[in-house]
Write a structure and sequence with these properties.
The complex is a heterodimer of chains A (10) and B (211).
Chain A lengths: L10
Chain B lengths: L1 H24 L7 H14 L9 H24 L13 H14 L6 H15 L2 H10 L1 E2 L1 H27 L7 H24 L6 E2 L2
Antiparallel strand pairs in B: 1-2
Helix pairs in contact in B: 1-3, 1-7, 2-3, 2-5, 4-5, 5-8, 7-8
The chains are: A little secondary structure (10), B mainly alpha (211).
């Protein structure tokens, strides 16, 4: 998965 | 990194300042109910991924934000409803919902439910403070606690900007999250005139009054 699908910020 | 942690704690502080004000003064005068409902919508649409949140830090904050916002709305809509003056809270939120909805449909990272709702939530958050600032404009002044609440809320996303800059330079694999950054900058700009008044007035211990 690309970076964007891992939301690591609130 | 430190900017982001400070930002998240500033956000948490803003919620506790607001809760303190409502419970201490037993009144939600000067607080825009519309903005609070918009924030509830922001949290719900942003934290749909709550069940599979990887980091405990994020998980705790997401639960805190959703639960405290629910409680604030309960206080404003039930407990202290009489102190709520809808005639002052007249901003047309449909424009904000339309703005966020349009941008979420036009430029999501990917056309999946999660991504479209996330983009909607980011854009909505960038303008959700407008009913509150508009109400402040109408009343011309605010209690110190309300001013502190708005200042802490504004600082939260303002601190995310150095966080993004820091990550850009420190994480080689980090790609710029254009939606979050653009909306974050817009959001911080919307607070700029408030910050100026807040800085010049409240820091001198004066009452928060618009010129």
């Amino acid at each position: 998965k690309g970076r964007y699908f891992v939301k690591d910020e609130l | 990194n430190i900017f982001r942690v400070l930002g998240d704690f500033s956000h948490l502080a803003s919620i506790f300042i607001l809760l303190h004000k409502i419970q201490q003064l037993k009144s939600c005068s000067g607080i825009s109910f519309k903005s609070q409902v918009l924030y509830m919508l922001v949290y719900i649409t942003r934290y749909l991924d709550l069940p599979w949140t990887s980091s405990p830090y994020n998980f705790i904050f997401k639960v805190l934000f959703i639960s405290s916002e629910l409680y604030i709305i309960y206080l404003m809509a039930r407990a202290y409803k009489p102190t709520n003056d809808p005639n002052l809270d007249t901003f047309h939120v449909e424009f904000l919902l339309g703005f966020a909805g349009l941008l979420a449909l036009l430029f999501p990272y990917k056309y999946t439910i999660l991504e479209v709702f996330w983009a909607f939530s980011i854009w909505l958050e960038s303008v959700a403070i407008l009913p509150q600032l508009f109400m402040l404009q109408r009343t011309g002044e605010a209690e110190a606690m309300t001013a502190h609440y708005i200042a802490a809320l504004g600082m939260y996303r303002a601190l995310y900007i150095p966080n993004w800059i820091y990550r850009y330079f420190s994480e080689p694999t980090h790609k710029v999250d254009t939606i979050a950054v653009t909306a974050g900058i817009l959001q911080t700009i919307l607070y700029s005139d408030f910050f100026w008044i807040y800085y010049t007035k409240v820091m001198r211990g004066e009452k928060f009054k618009l010129p």
